């Protein structure tokens, strides 16, 4: 197990363990590289009164500039003590509040930025949606919106790797048992992969799905293969651990998935630059 590049500490509202606890566990596991990537969901950046939609206090915390900024400061200080540590951020919805994304991206301490889309513009997080009350047509149109917003992000936003490409399936298929005919999104997914490759950006294999009902990495082997066919070279692997017990979980499976897709190297990022590590 070489690197876990997607994890959260208690600077993320949905995560439990302190940065120190996470780092001690990473040392125990013998990780060569370990990145903390706490949440900054850019569309929740503004105070509640300035949001044009109803959100809860909990959800506001995702984008609180104080939490996201404090994580970066804390992690960059801890790097002296833990030389394998990388300072990252999971930048959610960077195009839904561009000034917020720019403030975070201006932090010189950042080694690594994951760009994620947890919710389509003007909608709630895929986590919160009630797919039981939607028609299949509505779910397909939600997915179309999702992938076209991802494509827009890949064209315009500044990040290093695209987070968990198949995130909505964690809920739609994993939690609600609704199977989608994913082939209808192949064209837009190919465009996403080609755009990432052209811009020197990558994707991640997010192994959290292995611990959840969906039982697959996000994305799974078929998409990692397609990414490679589309010219993709930069691939990171992350557990998306939200507590120290999950740190490193599924990383070896993720490495095998990378090999099975034909990759010889995975990437880690320092100072926002990829470095390649032989598999
Ligand atoms: Zn995420
Ligand atoms: Zn995450």
Return the CATH topology: TIM Barrel
- Percent of residues in helical segments? 25-40%
CATH architecture: Alpha-Beta Barrel
Quaternary structure:
single chain
Structural class: alpha/beta
Radius of gyration: 17 Å
Bound molecules: zinc ion
- Taking pLDDT < 50 over at least 5 consecutive residues as the criterion, the unreliable ranges are 47-60
Q: Could you tell me the mean pLDDT? A: 92
Distance between the termini: 10 Å
Number of helices: 9
Number of domains: 1
Fraction of residues in β-strands: 15-25%
- CATH H-level homologous superfamily name: Metal-dependent hydrolases
Order of helices and strands: EHEHHEHEHEHHEHEHEE
3D shape: globular
Q: Can you tag this structure with a few keywords?
A:
279 residues, TIM Barrel, seven-stranded parallel β-sheet, two-stranded antiparallel ribbon, 37% helix, globular, binds zinc ion
